[in-house]
Design brief:
Four copies of one chain form a homotetramer. With 352 residues, chain A is of the alpha+beta class. Helices cover 20% and strands 32% of the residues of chain A. Chain A is built from nine helices and 24 strands. Chains in contact: A-B, A-C, B-D, C-D. Chains A and C meet through helix 1, helix 2, strand 1, helix 3 and helix 4 of A and helix 1, helix 2, strand 1, helix 3 and helix 4 of C. Strand 15 of chain C pairs antiparallel with strand 13 of chain D, so a sheet runs across the interface.
């Protein structure tokens, strides 16, 4: 570093101006910025309380129709990433509201999306003409470039957490979007039809066509997720308690090539072992309450809260209840980091 | 062929004797045998009626203890493959009986095996120390080189269909077997523990180690299979009705590298479209009754019957009942044919 | 869009301030920015002439020692990406000079790098202690996290084009770098040893260990590349002339998980068919001269020039010589776009 | 085993007759045959001397035209596999002669084949209309179901070693063959065209279509193989000396899904370490002389000899010359054993 400062000092101002004329710049003037010893911290640990945001969402419901809003969403904005629409460096999260009798118009886009249902029973997302019926805790996928819309034919508001890979896809210069010309995509199959075909454990239909790198299973019911967590018995990793990855049943790999989703259970009083990894995560509390130490931040969370866990930050989670299980849903950019050969993980050992 | 006969005629007897001295033989004398236009028919379509075999199995139960028999099995022998222990050219099938209070000794072998439960409720197969509890219609895997034994602590006889790749593995010169030194492998995990970890649709445990190319899921419950078939709605292929493949949830591929297993449903009166393929199948009737035309044979089957469908034979299946569903379990050598680039399929079209 | 403007108009200012307090923002205010119909154009087509830059590089050689500079590089800066160190949205390119008797210190970093030799014969890059001897047109890899340094024991300056995935890796928050503690990594194997093991077409050494997702072949000699191009005979694609991808011989896939490199040949007068694709490319002229139409720009290039071809821009190339072959080296981010399921391609047909 | 004999003794003769009526047989009567502790030894180590066989081949040339013979081949018959056309349990080998002015008729078959040139310069194999020109030591592929013929327009006899997976494919019931209707397939591309496209190390053509699981490279020249062996420097495995696998450049995997081919070099006096593995090999001496200990057999070999190394037999090789390199070509069934999860290997350590 000393030599570099010397190098910078020895470079006359006129030289910069001249090289700039030819659209070049000396690496030695910016080497410390180009090749950092560790990735600079930008995204911050951050908690979004449902108790704060729900009233604001309902206010938005008074201000605007679903059609007016196209999507009535409050985006969760990481304070460390000012100017960017991002919950972590690569992930987008938002809370979306759909009121009784509303339909959000059909569109599609190259970013992959899913929704995790926070409240409301019986509304639907329609994907390529198949309605997927919502229950709290269900995970519903709207893969890249799939036509989708949402509707609420119940008499109660429905709220879900949206997760998308928008910051990543934007960084790759690959965001495309398209409205459906004819308003709403017609219903093309029975409700939840794909769940019948792809949702059974260890069984796949012969001859059922599926294209593309995303999961053919568009809905992962909470009921089944919770049963799996409770039956697993022991923690599957020391860092996460009992944790399952939602997978593409055709491959055993992540639901999307860019993002993966998880659900985990912390037993009463359970404290996970500290570690860190390249991937960033958006965590959402399905039920229970606890605390997460992420870097220097201490985030106390309750049911329906959401928080950001940036990449490469030491972190640990604790269920603060002595009697109640805590369930956390989360999603991350781990697949893209692994596919790029950039995933790393570190464990300080049991003492943390 | 004419030229070949001429070539054979022109080759003097002395020449044969001389080349044989050096352990060689003229190809032109055997070309028609080495490179056949089509594979010669050897295995035959063949039906084994449970009504015939069950009494013989029970007689075996009187003759021998399970320990004496090591495995008390009547092997299903294809009459076209005399001298070979085989139900089709590559597949072994047998019906095995275990009586109340019996335990079959622990062993392991390089051929992969599974059992499909025909009658009896509550007996178990133990795989590497995990007991898998049997119900009629369950599929239980004992992968290659996994320690396994069977026990019956109920008060009724239990019968299952064994499926193995013995003829294939023998042909490759790769059969190894080993008894467990200490009699019976100790119980190492809770009953059906792996079902909790790997049995949920679209979910996999993070951090749960699994080695080898076989499925980590050792039991595929009938209840779940039947539900999947009934929910699928429409036939998934014209040749099979509604059909699911049992898969390795880590890969979406077959349960074993050498064999795959399937379960299918024919609706009342349903008739499948005629086709043929390289893979041979052993078919087993879970419930219902019908008829299969395989090559020139017409096999009428009822619940618990088993039949052989040799490779490359035209075949079609019909549910003969006007009101009852028919359920068929089957297994085949398709994975090894596909991995060798040798799989073919032909369809004569809807008219057959 | 109209409805969206209406929605924006209906949202009172106070509402923004309130939602901002809780680190949220209304999606409907920024939807057009979050989900663009097409990716916005940022990077621009841009040509860097070697005739302009070479004298500036040599000036830098007078200003600074290699040790002072750590790496004596003029970075090629895309004028559309101001503030970013980038030749295209995801790719970094620079021209590096090493003078006789210089050694650049050993370091390693998580971004993957390669160098393509522009002038000079006999200098070396050392990767994990194996020296790779440079000749013009050679491609030399320094994969992610591999120790590497460069040295010039000849009596002439050596210049190469550096290619890295820095903008991509930075966007993923995954840049790590480390200097080698002991100055220069010791020589560990004979020069070009890996070329002997992995460089033969259609042959791989049994038992030679290799880890990681990058190619085990660290040098791709120009001599061999040129021979392949000349022997291929006919164009391999209508859009590129005769084009080869440099591949990982263990997989047939790209040299790095994030970047791929190519070499192509345009025959005298050859004009490629117009098309566009998501991937961006940095193109470098090995020899010959021609013109590329990229978007609205017309770039006339000569030997040793470099130019940027941003993603999703229509483009075509023409060899302007009536007698001379043109050879172009290039590299792109196509692997990461494909792995993320985001790659697209469009062809306006022969008329363009 | 004792219990089994007891079980056999306790089974009355009448019972056998009765179970046989229903095409079943008791497993306990044949368990030792079905599940052997180790695979039974059938194929034997065996040497075929070229000095013995060459005169017999030339005699065949006098007896028959190439057209009469279809293929003028002396098959190498393993004495342990009487009745089978096989050099090892799964592999076929033969020596084929083609005389000046002869053309062997075009045909294709589902078994995969290659030829390794033993003597003669300038004859050709044509694969799908591309002529591949033969030189001693070249490996030429005729993949499964590819049209192929051979011709000799030189004025000297040409002899090569044929390798096929016929015993394996026959065991799977998958042998198909077909003559080309119009006699000889027309020439469709320049000679050795695919070598230009796929033969360069570390480079693959973009846009060049290739289907199927076999290598797109139909010829692997000896010149290149020998150079690779000599440049590799040190033994790549203790059991083989310097050894390379011929690979599919699109995947880095074996040339065929069923068979792989290798070439190895033993330095003067070199002795390999004893080991054994499931795969069987046919070995062919390109040049040099030495001895192989395979099981209890001691095979002394010279240039152009061929020998069988059955699966699971301990073996070691020694170059008996103090000054000359020894080069061995070989092929094996290892890919199919690995794909079936049945491959095993054992090493008794350096002392053997």
């Amino acid at each position: 570093m000393k030599t570099m400062e010397a190098a910078m000092a020895k470079t006359p101002q006129a030289y910069f101006q001249e090289v700039a004329r030819y659209k070049t710049e000396p690496l030695w003037m910016r080497l410390a910025e180009v090749l950092t010893n560790e990735p600079p911290v930008r995204a911050l640990p951050c908690l979004w309380r449902y108790a704060d945001i729900r009233p604001l969402l309902l206010r938005a419901g008074e201000l605007l129709t679903a059609a007016e809003a196209e999507r009535r969403v409050l985006m969760l904005m990481n304070p460390g990433l000012e100017g960017e629409v991002a919950a972590t460096q690569t992930l987008y999260a938002g809370l979306q509201l759909i009121l009784p009798s509303e339909i959000a118009p059909t569109h599609r886009h190259s970013p992959a999306a899913f929704r995790f249902i926070v409240e409301g029973e019986g509304a639907y997302t329609s994907v390529n003409g198949e309605r997927l019926i919502m229950h709290p805790g269900d995970l519903i996928l709207t893969p890249a470039w799939a036509w989708h819309d949402h509707g609420n034919e119940t008499d109660a508001p429905t709220v879900w957490l949206d997760g998308l890979d928008v910051p990543l896809v934007k960084g790759l210069g690959a965001v495309f979007a398209q409205p459906y010309a004819a308003g709403t995509h017609p219903v093309a199959r029975p409700d939840n039809a794909s769940l019948g075909l792809y949702g059974a454990g260890g069984m796949l239909p012969l001859g059922a066509a599926h294209d593309g790198p995303h999961s053919p299973l568009p809905i992962y019911p909470w009921k089944q997720a919770r049963t799996a967590l409770e039956q697993a018995g022991a923690p599957t990793t020391p860092h996460d308690g009992v944790i399952f990855e939602y997978v593409n049943p055709l491959t055993g790999g992540p639901i999307f090539p860019t993002m993966s989703a998880y659900v985990q259970m912390l037993r009463p009083g359970e404290q996970t072992r500290r570690h860190r990894h390249m991937s960033s995560h958006v965590m959402h509390v399905v039920s229970g309450s606890g605390v997460s130490i992420i870097g220097d931040a201490r985030l106390e969370w309750r049911a329906k809260d959401t928080f950001a866990q940036p990449g490469w930050m030491w972190h640990e989670h604790r269920n603060l209840s002595a009697s109640e299980l805590a369930f956390l849903f989360s999603f991350s950019d781990r697949p893209v980091l692994e596919r790029c050969g950039l995933y790393r993980e570190e464990d300080r050992g049991p003492q943390g």
